[in-house]
Amino acid sequence: MAYFRNFSDILYQSPLASRTSSYDYIRAKNIFRRAKIREDIFQAAVAFDRYKIIGEERPDQIANKVYGSPQYDWVILLANNIINIREEWPLSDSEFNSYITSKYSAAELSQVKYYETIAYFDSRGKMIIPAGKIVDSNFSITYFDYDAQEQEIITQPYRFDQTSTTFDSTIVRFDMDQQISLKQGKSFTVSPIKSVSVYEYEIQKNEEKRNIYVLKPRFLQTIIDDLEEIMNYDLSSQYINRSTKKGDELRVISPR
Predict the structure, then answer these.
(1) How do the pLDDT tens digits run along the chain, 256 residues long?
(2) Hey, CA dihedral for 104, 109, 114, 119, is it positive or negative?
(3) Which terminus of the chain has a lower count of CB atoms within 10 Å, N or C?
(4) Domain assignment present for 98
(5) Are residues 7 and 84 in the same domain?
(6) Which of 5, 31, 11 is nearest to 244 (CA)?
(7) Domain membership of residue 85 as a residue range
């Protein structure tokens, strides 16, 4: 990965048996320094595009598609705060099958992991509850539907008088012996849930990893310049140059 070529070096005392003195050093990349995308860019929605990983696409392939070079795969990872690619990148079909068969038995895969809601709407198309909310197995919700009609029969004569009567959107029909009232609106209790098995949960978790963000190409050079600046060392007692520093001297006597 080209990302590590941008890392500064550190000289640390040689642990090798072949060293000739306590002043023998080995040069290595300082992997303890980690860069990240500048906060003002990271928080700017206009700096990123949504991207769905297709099939078995790798970060270097996406970088080549977006930036014209696979060497910017590290930009794809930084844009999504991915540190452990084995855990945070979607598995291929073969990798996924190996993963679940090594982790679960067939019986465990069919067990219920949790229950989640199904999107439910009233007669006017208003959403009562969205999909995907994790709930208990006995979850239910009560709502009032204004377009539902409930019939109520009052078995007694109804007499008109001089008083003005308001029915508040209630449809009323009369006959000789009874008043039939069709009330507008009715309460309903529903349980719009479904079970999610362990197998379905693992598939869903892997698929969610396919939805990532990619930094727009016009911001690429800014990120590269920032990385170089972050990786440079400031003046200190260990400072050798901007790209190299010396580690602590842990040995004070000659090894021989």
Answers:
(1) 566 666 667 777 777 777 777 667 777 776 666 666 667 776 776 889 999 999 999 999 999 999 999 999 999 998 998 989 989 999 999 999 999 999 999 999 999 999 999 999 998 899 999 999 999 999 999 998 877 765 555 555 545 454 444 444 445 555 555 555 555 678 899 999 999 999 999 999 999 999 999 999 999 988 888 777 766 667 777 767 666 767 666 555 444 4
(2) positive
(3) C
(4) no
(5) yes
(6) 11
(7) 2-90+209-246
In a domain, residue 99? The reply is no
The answer for residues whose C-beta is within 8 angstroms of residue 30's C-beta and 6 or more apart is: 7, 8, 9, 10, 245
Q: Name the pairing type of β-strands 179-190 and 141-154.
A: antiparallel
How far is residue 118 from each of residues 121, 131, 189, measured CA to CA in Å? 10, 4, 14
Residue 212 burial by Cβ neighbours in a 10 Å radius (0-12, 13-18, 19+): buried
* Angle made by CA atoms 215, 219, 224, in degrees to the nearest 5: 100
